[in-house]
Design brief:
Elements lengths: L1 H20 L3 E6 L6 E5 L4 E5 L4 E5 L4 E5 L5 E7 L5 E7 L3 H10 L10 E7 L17 E5 L1 H8 L5 E11 L8 E9 L10 E7 L4 H4 L2 E2 L15 E6 L4 E10 L4 E7 L11 E5 L5 E3 L8 E4 L6 E2 L6 E2 L9 E3 L4 E9 L6 E10 L7 E3 L8
Parallel strand pairs: 14-19
Antiparallel strand pairs: 1-24, 2-3, 3-4, 4-5, 6-7, 7-8, 8-9, 9-13, 10-11, 11-12, 12-14, 15-16, 16-17, 18-19, 20-21, 22-23, 23-24, 24-25
Length: 372
């Protein structure tokens, strides 16, 4: 018994030591674009940031190791894959951001019918200097999310593209294998009723490298990718402004978290943070505002409850520009800022601890007092 207690104590001390090695915050600032997502490779001591049309790799002191500056499209949320590469949402479409990027790259802007959405896969181990090029340096491949392209073309479910992305176990299964989940951007339109649900696609990526990954060639928009997802889940949150901005699976709670820009429909609580349990069984039902049965998920039983709609969530200021759970109750969460005097847009990736409390779900680690 004493030996077991000693082992447990050693493990706890080891976990505390690992946490102590993590900085309370990391800062990165740029002049073009605002922060869209963050990811951490704890083992390699690297943090990754996406800033609309650039990708930044730093060490855990915030020193820049390398960048990709010439990205054709809107680089969004990110997640570290099980293969050590970073997976990020990438939108190439006919909006103001797309036009600005096309002008900078000197390529033709896309029409609505040409819009394409990808998972960009970034070989972060090869990023070793600033100013790397995804085409010339071969540090990025793409896989087209064809289901989102189809729904965007028809504005189905209010789809405006994709953004939130994470790896998580199979929903409703004991299988420990990790699958890729990709969330839609959803139009914030108060006149519609078909846009009150989040839409999340599930993919098995085991054959992606062999079958679908495509090198970047500027001016082209390939459509290599799976025809259909394994699953297409709907979860009722009420309408949000541009859908799930960041999505993250937290192994400590067994939940997938959704960070959004708050919606504007007055009948909903319009929380900026939601989550759901991955061990739940999906049910076939008609989502609110739709007439066809889909695979439905329900929100977790924690958080603030809105009695009139049954929607649960949290009022937490940050997360829409980056969520990164570490699996042990600690999270790096992006705090975005724009300096009006200099025009510099920045991300402070701050270390938080999850509490789950309705009024304060996260607290900054540096505000805690511990005995470690």
């Amino acid at each position: 018994m004493r030996k077991l207690s000693a082992i447990v104590a050693a493990l706890l001390l080891g976990a505390c030591a690992l946490a102590a090695e993590l900085p309370d915050s990391l800062y990165v600032g740029v002049r073009d674009g605002h922060v869209q997502g963050i990811a951490l490779d704890r083992a390699k001591g690297c943090m990754y940031f996406s800033f609309t049309s650039s990708f930044i790799k730093t060490d855990l002191s915030g020193n820049i190791i390398g960048t990709i500056n010439r990205i054709q499209g809107h680089l969004g949320a990110m997640t570290l894959g099980p293969d050590g590469r970073v997976y990020a949402s990438l939108e190439c479409k006919d909006d103001e951001i797309g036009k600005g990027i096309a002008d900078r790259l000197g390529i033709e802007n896309l029409s609505h019918d040409q819009a394409v959405f990808y998972v960009a896969i970034i070989d972060v181990d090869r990023i070793d200097r600033p100013g790397m090029d995804p085409e010339k340096d071969g540090v990025m491949t793409t896989v087209c999310i064809r289901e989102a392209v189809k729904d965007y073309a028809g504005s189905t479910y209010g789809c405006t593209g994709i953004d939130g992305i994470t790896f998580a176990p199979a929903i409703g299964s004991r299988c420990k294998k990790l699958f890729l989940y990709v969330a839609y951007g959803i139009r914030g339109d108060n006149s519609r009723t078909d846009n009150d649900n989040q839409v999340i696609l599930c993919y098995d990526i085991k054959d992606w490298k062999r079958k679908y990954e495509t090198p970047v060639v500027f001016g082209t928009v390939p459509t290599n990718g799976p025809e259909k997802p394994l699953h297409k889940y709907f979860i009722h949150t009420g309408n949000t402004t541009w859908g799930v901005q960041n999505m993250a699976y937290d192994a400590a709670t067994g939940r997938i978290f959704l960070a959004v820009y708050k919606g504007k429909k007055p009948q909903y609580p319009n929380y900026p943070l939601f989550c759901f349990d991955v061990d739940q069984k999906p049910v076939k039902a008609c989502p609110k505002g739709l007439s066809v049965k889909q695979e439905m998920l329900r929100l977790s039983s924690d958080g603030l409850l809105d009695e009139s709609t049954g929607v649960r969530g949290w009022n937490f200021k940050w997360g829409s520009t980056g969520l990164c759970p570490l699996g042990d109750g600690l999270w790096y969460i992006s705090e975005n800022h724009k300096d009006k005097a200099t025009g510099i847009q920045s991300c402070t990736a701050r270390l938080y601890r999850w509490t789950g409390e309705g009024s304060k779900p996260f607290v900054p680690r540096q505000h805690e007092t511990t005995d470690h």
